[in-house]
Write a structure and sequence with these properties.
By secondary structure, this protein is an alpha+beta fold. The chain has six helices and seven strands; from the N terminus they run H-H-H-E-H-E-E-H-E-E-H-E-E.
């Protein structure tokens, strides 16, 4: 009987020892996966021929495959951006010539359409630049420079930049929040939304920017009093080249798409809905200490 108890005790100790070792290996494997998503360091291939060893090897192969897919996607995006850049370069030369001839006609007074022609040339130049900006953001050609940012300062800069364009509009700021972000690009994103709101309100319209600080995220609300848009248009507002029925005549339909790309580079999401007075655009940005590489 004593030998049976001793054997059972040893078996129990051995089982506990095995379970403890397995728990430690599982924790190490979990930490390795987390490290991969933070820094891109691949989990090493295991030399053990057991269940956890084979699982570790499979995870390592999957991580390598993810890196290959990411690098391939980046190469394709870079080639696409270079292609667009080449096209835009080829277009800029004839557009510059058209602008010159239109300006000469306007100075000489030989054409009654020179002003309209110049406006169309300018719209085409803006469209080309906006398309390039959007594609470079999406392909990581523009690298985000993250640093601590105060949203109230960014919102005030947007307010001052847009005041000369919309002197009769009221752009109201409430709240404040801080997070790591690229201040220049975040100002571009917010500016596009506020400019769009100003274009869809009456001359004396009101656009409100509200900022709320949460424990894990920051939320920016931009709401106008323009009555909103057709509900059928809401899912298409952030698509390239989509222009709402009430869009300004010189709108290229790229601004909100650029905003969406910038928000996504900040690991955030952007949505739009009809609010009480008009269109309500919401940008939710997570508070993170570093960028995830994968």
């Amino acid at each position: 009987m004593d030998y049976l108890l001793l054997g059972a005790g040893l078996a129990l100790v051995l089982l506990l020892w095995v379970l403890i070792r397995m728990q430690r290996r599982i924790r190490e494997l979990s930490q390795s996966i987390y490290t991969f998503f933070l820094s891109g360091t691949v989990t090493p291939i295991s030399t053990r021929d057991d269940v956890l060893g084979r699982l570790q090897t499979d995870i390592s192969e999957l991580e390598n495959r993810l890196i290959q897919e990411r690098d391939g996607a980046k190469r394709e995006a870079k080639e696409h951006t270079e292609f667009l850049s080449d096209i835009s370069h080829q277009l800029k030369t004839p557009l510059a010539g058209l602008r010159l001839y239109c300006e000469l006609e306007q100075s000489a007074g030989t054409s009654a359409y020179s002003e309209k022609e110049l406006a169309l040339v300018e719209k085409m130049e803006t469209l080309i630049q906006n398309i390039l900006t959007l594609e470079k953001i999406r392909s990581d050609t523009y690298e985000m420079q993250f640093s601590p940012a105060e949203l109230s300062q960014i919102a005030r800069q947007v307010q001052m930049e847009l005041h000369p364009l919309f002197p009769q509009k009221q752009i109201l700021l409430t709240g404040n929040a801080q997070l790591r972000a690229d201040p220049a690009w975040l100002r571009e994103a917010l500016g596009n939304v506020v400019k769009n709101a100003c274009e869809h309100t009456r001359p004396e319209g009101i656009v409100e920017i509200r900022m709320e600080q949460g424990e894990r995220s920051v939320t920016i609300f931009v709401e106008d009093d323009g009555g909103g848009v057709d509900p059928a248009e809401l899912p298409m507002l952030f698509l390239r080249f989509h222009k709402a029925k009430s869009a300004a005549p010189n709108s290229t339909g790229i601004g909100l798409a650029i905003t969406k790309a910038i928000v996504e580079k900040h690991h955030g999401i952007i949505t739009a809905q009809n609010g009480r007075r008009g269109l309500l655009v919401t940008m939710c940005l997570p508070i993170i200490d570093a960028n995830l590489k994968i």
